[in-house]
Amino acid sequence: MEEPHPGQFYMLEVSKGMDPLLKRAFSLFRRTPEGIRLLFRIKGKGTSILRDLREGTEITVLGPLGNGYPLPSDKESPLVIAGGIGIASVFSLAEKISKKAFVFYGARTERELFVAGELEKIYKELVVCTDDGSCGVKGTVVDAVNDFVRNRDGIHQPVIYACGPNVMLREIAKTAAANGISAYVSLEEHMACGIGACLGCVVKTKTGYKRVCKEGPIFAAAEIVWQP
Amino acid sequence: MEEPHPGQFYMLEVSKGMDPLLKRAFSLFRRTPEGIRLLFRIKGKGTSILRDLREGTEITVLGPLGNGYPLPSDKESPLVIAGGIGIASVFSLAEKISKKAFVFYGARTERELFVAGELEKIYKELVVCTDDGSCGVKGTVVDAVNDFVRNRDGIHQPVIYACGPNVMLREIAKTAAANGISAYVSLEEHMACGIGACLGCVVKTKTGYKRVCKEGPIFAAAEIVWQP
Amino acid sequence: MNLEVNIGGLKLKNPVMTASGTFGYGEEYAEFVDLNRLGAVVVKGLSLKPKEGNPPPRLVETASGMLNAIGLQNIGIERFIGEKLPFLRRFDTAVIVNFFGDSVDEYAEAAERLSATEGIHGLEMNISCPNKQAGWCIFGTDPKVTMRVVGAVRKKTALPLIVKLSPNVTDISLMARVAMEAGADAVSLINTITGMAIDIKTRRPRLANITGGLSGPAVKPIAVRMVYEVYRSLKIPIIGMGGIMNAGDAIEFLIAGASAVAVGTANFVNPRATTEIIDGIIDYMEKEGIGDIGSITGTVHAG
Amino acid sequence: MNLEVNIGGLKLKNPVMTASGTFGYGEEYAEFVDLNRLGAVVVKGLSLKPKEGNPPPRLVETASGMLNAIGLQNIGIERFIGEKLPFLRRFDTAVIVNFFGDSVDEYAEAAERLSATEGIHGLEMNISCPNKQAGWCIFGTDPKVTMRVVGAVRKKTALPLIVKLSPNVTDISLMARVAMEAGADAVSLINTITGMAIDIKTRRPRLANITGGLSGPAVKPIAVRMVYEVYRSLKIPIIGMGGIMNAGDAIEFLIAGASAVAVGTANFVNPRATTEIIDGIIDYMEKEGIGDIGSITGTVHAG
Ligand SMILES: Cc1cc2nc3c(=O)[nH]c(=O)nc-3n(C[C@H](O)[C@H](O)[C@H](O)COP(=O)(O)OP(=O)(O)OC[C@H]3O[C@@H](n4cnc5c(N)ncnc54)[C@H](O)[C@@H]3O)c2cc1C
Ligand SMILES: Cc1cc2nc3c(=O)[nH]c(=O)nc-3n(C[C@H](O)[C@H](O)[C@H](O)COP(=O)(O)OP(=O)(O)OC[C@H]3O[C@@H](n4cnc5c(N)ncnc54)[C@H](O)[C@@H]3O)c2cc1C
Ligand SMILES: Cc1cc2nc3c(=O)[nH]c(=O)nc-3n(C[C@H](O)[C@H](O)[C@H](O)COP(=O)(O)O)c2cc1C
Ligand SMILES: Cc1cc2nc3c(=O)[nH]c(=O)nc-3n(C[C@H](O)[C@H](O)[C@H](O)COP(=O)(O)O)c2cc1C
Ligand code: FES
Ligand code: FES
Question: Of the listed D38, D111, D123, D129, which one is catalytic?
């Protein structure tokens, strides 16, 4: 098995039949001595089938794929930002840069905060927020990040790593641009091949369409042409 | 649940996805106090999925469908003939007419004789044959039936009930016709609806195409226009 | 909440009908479905004389679909009127008779006979015969012939006339336009797409008829596209069909441009599909605050 | 055992090629597949100038299939020759370049440029542009235009010329005949079938381009039928494709009338699909005692 980098992903076969047909993309959640762990949210057909698999069922997995997060330099203070299931993608990054990360983790409500427990040992500071205030700070993770950036001490240069819904990433990108902070975001697009061959998963960047599966899924936020 | 008759069948949903799409037909094997039992042979996609289902999985079942075997009169001696997985269809008939049936059960080889054990208590006479002689008489079930018919005592009027491969049924039909014996055969055709609506499952009879799922699956052998 | 739709003069209590050939003559499904709940029952295609149909095998399953080559087996119009129609008339549901002929005259005569019969609310003429071995049937692929046959039928009937188009054409909008100009009140699309499957062991076609008609979820994207194309280019009510398995699929067709939908292959997979789809549409209307189902027809936000 | 085939002058070591647009420029799959084993690599469709392609979303999954609206994004012929071809030339595998243009002149010029390049073994011209929003592209649906564009390309190239036909037509045999008469050495069929999917929540098409091309197992019965129709009516080598997922599917196309096959969507599902299919074909030949793969072409026992 190839050693994965935080931010990379895998394509999982979800059925032996022809429907669903395509593989599904899931980020590396954690690398463990036994192998890899993925974390996924039940969304539609494919993820429902995965949930119902018996332990021990063998399925075909392609990966690790994509580029992964660039690691922060020693001078940089990593802000690791997750919205909802976005935690799956940034978790292993926070783990790797152990204890250096300022982690911001938001969800709509407490029930949708996954693996909050497992986060314990890996952050320098942790801000949890929920839209409805059911856990942590009431408000969005974007608000929390904005607060933090506004009040930062100026010693370290923050660098942002974010994964979450597109609107959240767009707002984070704005904050980063406005404050001269580098930001890296993990993007999602519907995929067929996962290896750069079909040109199906493109995202618009300032230098043309780029493939999320190959040039991404991690992009410099400043490169992306965000859709309104 | 409607009470099934021997020879009737059920249509089973094999997948929640769109592939495989259609339900699969299986004969009533046994009626038990708890419900019904089916017996099937792994053939392709659908039966493989059924095999892999977890105990307790709920699937949609349509039935009982079709007409079922006409029961023998008191004067008749039922010859119950099964080739291979055909045992699934005639078993419950033999069970119902308990101890009256002369059962002929053939398969290519011992390994393909299903449920021979369960047959124990329900026959008057049992002839098991295998093509390779690995169990019982060596030869086909058709040979065994021919022998029996040739040597019959003439007191009782035999009536034949048969399920198995098409070639076997055709030969049985010939034997029956040549000896003036009524014979009923259980036929198979690819099915879509299972309830007579699609006209997909027809078989050619002397009075035109008939639907296996509705006018069948049990037909008087003399009615069928057998294909060479 | 208003579920009623008007398809070229044919008023239906809701937009969900059965697709011809997949619901028998209605009675086969009466055990599973309250026929009173359906927008319409469209019966298996009828011809003047009974037809034997093709030899078996007539069916083969394909990926998310099936091929059929029934060969338009039917009991003929007279027996239908005598034996099947009385049953259907017991229900408060529109009865639409799907029919076909082997010649323009047969089409016209069939239409005339059906129009003289009480208890039939609309006619659906099938001009595509995908099961014909001879390649295809010109009634549904040659615009000139389509014009003639639809025109001839139009002269013989005052009932709402639906023309069911073949998808095996380069330009479905052109065929719809021709049908409309020849007098159709509505078009149904799509009929099955001609396909074939071969057993690689025996090297025989899996259907005795060699080719057959493909239906089921596999064809849905093609059907939705055709509904959209016709809706964009013409003002004629469309009955959409092709792979509708659930309420979401039915709504997709409505949004693409259909005024009603027909449920075909889904009946085989789930005999209660039609009424479950009606329930699902009601749910959707409640959730989305839609008062009138007709208001979503053709509302796809495109271009 | 002979796996070699000759497609209108193009000699392939076996009949399994990749379908254009599903195998990138070859290098993307080199990690999974020994390119030396393939009959041919057919590269993503190229045009004279690079093309940006359509905005996302470009893909949507459908029942046993997928719709794509890539919009023919490509790096252009010059960059292909400079950056991608050298890699492909390292392999002992035929390189077939799929190309297209926006006008007859562009087609001809592209063919000329490609024919002047070392290391290209054949040309496949794509005359169907299912992703065009404007309905469809006349190059592949209007026989007169097809005749002109193929004729123009034929004049500019001495390479084996494959014309890739659009399935969105009434009569595929007619289109194949026109291509043949205009000078094609072989035809590829089928390209994707135009389809559409709509999100019922947002009422937006699921593809930014509104419509897209349907591929995958869903279309296989249609593709097999088209191969069979063309084989029956013409003497031109056919490259069959559309939903081939495994060796059995590939053999089905050969028996229907194809001399070679191309594997498309299957590469996405299983990046090793092509070589597994080659292995499967060898198995089949052994089991059935077939000495020459070419001998099974068109051997379907029909009518
Ligand atoms: C690089 C990458 C990493 C991802 N990592 C994770 C992860 O770690 N955990 C997790 O829960 N989810 C992750 N996702 C999203 C995940 O791929 C989708 O939720 C999943 O494909 C949904 O499949 P489904 O069949 O259940 O849903 P359906 O909605 O039934 O899927 C229908 C089709 O849409 C595609 N699709 C639907 N949603 C998405 C989406 N958000 N992104 C891409 N394709 C989608 C499916 O792949 C499928 O082809 C990731 C996506 C990408 C692109
Ligand atoms: C009335 C009836 C009763 C039956 N009873 C039994 C039984 O008790 N036990 C048992 O093991 N089998 C029985 N069969 C056969 C059983 O239906 C098929 O073996 C099964 O459908 C194969 O499905 P598959 O997906 O595994 O095979 P595949 O070959 O992958 O199926 C592909 C398609 O062909 C159809 N098909 C394949 N073989 C048959 C067949 N022999 N008859 C009808 N359709 C077929 C399938 O339904 C499916 O639509 C019966 C068939 C009929 C018609
Ligand atoms: C078994 C079968 C029989 C059919 N018979 C007819 C018919 O007699 N007349 C007709 O116009 N269409 C007939 N059709 C076509 C359907 O009415 C419908 O147009 C098509 O199947 C697409 O819808 P679906 O995918 O929901 O099945 C038949 C379809 C099937 C599957
Ligand atoms: C993502 C994608 C991109 C494609 N791009 C092209 C192309 O550039 N040129 C072309 O002629 N065909 C293109 N095709 C069509 C395929 O080559 C093939 O004809 C079609 O997909 C049917 O085969 P399949 O079902 O095995 O995929 C493309 C198909 C897909 C799925
Ligand atoms: S998924 Fe095919 S290029 Fe990214
Ligand atoms: S399976 Fe439909 S009529 Fe028998």
Answer: D129
Between the CA atoms of B116, B122, B124 and B129, what dihedral angle is there, to the nearest 10 degrees? -10
Q: pTM of the predicted model, to two decimals?
A: 0.96
What is the number of other CB atoms lying within 10 angstroms of the CB of residue C183? Answer: 16
**Domain C5-296 sits in CATH 3.20.20.70:** yes
- Are β-strands D211-215 and D193-196 bridged in parallel, bridged antiparallel, or unpaired? antiparallel
CATH architecture of A77-223: 3-Layer(aba) Sandwich (3.40)
Q: What is the DSSP string of D122-173?
A: EEEEE---TT-TTS--GGGT-HHHHHHHHHHHHHH--S-EEEE--S-SS-HH
What per-residue string of b and e applies to A208-224 under the rule 16 or more CB within 10 Å gives b?
ebbbbbbbbbbbebebb
pLDDT in tens, C80-94: 999 999 999 999 999
Q: Model confidence over B70-95: pLDDT tens digits? A: 999 988 899 999 999 999 999 999 99
Residue among C98, C1, C96, C87 nearest C44 (CA)? C98
Task: Supply the pLDDT for residue D131.
Answer: 47
Region B180-189 average pLDDT:
96
What gap in Å lies between CA D255 and CA D290, rounded to an integer? 13
State the CB neighbour count (10 A cutoff) for residue A183: 25
- Lowest-confidence region among A88-102, A119-133, C208-222, D86-100: A119-133
Q: Which residues pair with A77 in a beta bridge?
A: A158
Q: Which two tokens stand for residue B6?
A: 């021997």
Statement: residue D134 has pLDDT above 70? no
DSSP track, chain B: -PPPPTT-EEEE---SSSSS-S-EEEE--EEETTEEE------SHHHHHHHHPPTT----EEEEES--PPPPPTTEEEEEEEEGGGHHHHHHHHHHTTT-EEEEEEESSGGG--SHHHHGGGEEEEEEEETTSSSSEES-HHHHHHHHHHT--SSSEEEEEEES-HHHHHHHHHHHHHTT-EEEEE-----SSSSSSS--SEEEETTEEEETTTT-SEEEGGGB----
The bound ligand whose nearest atom lies closest to the alpha carbon of D199 is 1
Extents of the domains making up chain D: 5-296
- The mean per-residue pLDDT over the stretch D223-240 comes to 97
> Taking 50 as the threshold, does the pLDDT of residue A192 lie above it?
yes
Residue B101 pLDDT exceeds 60: yes
Selected for mutation to probe chain C from B16, B45, B190 (highest C CB count within 10 Å) is B190
Residue B188 and residue A115: Cα distance in Å, rounded?
A: 53
What is the torsion angle, in degrees rounded to the nearest 10, for the CA atoms of residue C202, residue C203, residue C206 and residue C211?
Answer: -160
With a CB-CB cutoff of 8 Å, which residues 139-178 of chain D face chain C?
A: 141, 168-171
CA distance B52 to B59: 13
**DSSP single-letter state for residue C74:** B
Q: Would you say residue C135 has pLDDT above 60?
A: no
DSSP label at residue C170: S
Residue D137 designated active-site = no
Shortest Cα distance, chain D CAs vs residue B49, angstroms: 17
Query: What is the torsional sign of CA C212, C217, C220, C222?
Result: negative
Contact A62, A85 (CB under 8 A): no
Q: How far is CA C156 from CA C6, C106, C124, D180, in A?
A: 22, 12, 13, 45
Whether D108 has a pLDDT exceeding 50, the answer reads yes
pLDDT at D136 over 60: no
Kindly indicate the confidence band of residue C137, based on its pLDDT and cuts at 50, 70 and 90.
Answer: low
- Across the interface, whether the CB atoms of D198 and C65 are under 8 A apart is answered no
Tokens 């990749």, residue located: D18
Which residues in chain A (6-25) have CB-CB distances under 8 A to chain B? 15, 17-20
Q: Which residues pair with C262 in a beta bridge?
A: C17
- Contact across the interface for C252 and D169, Cβ inside 8 Å: no
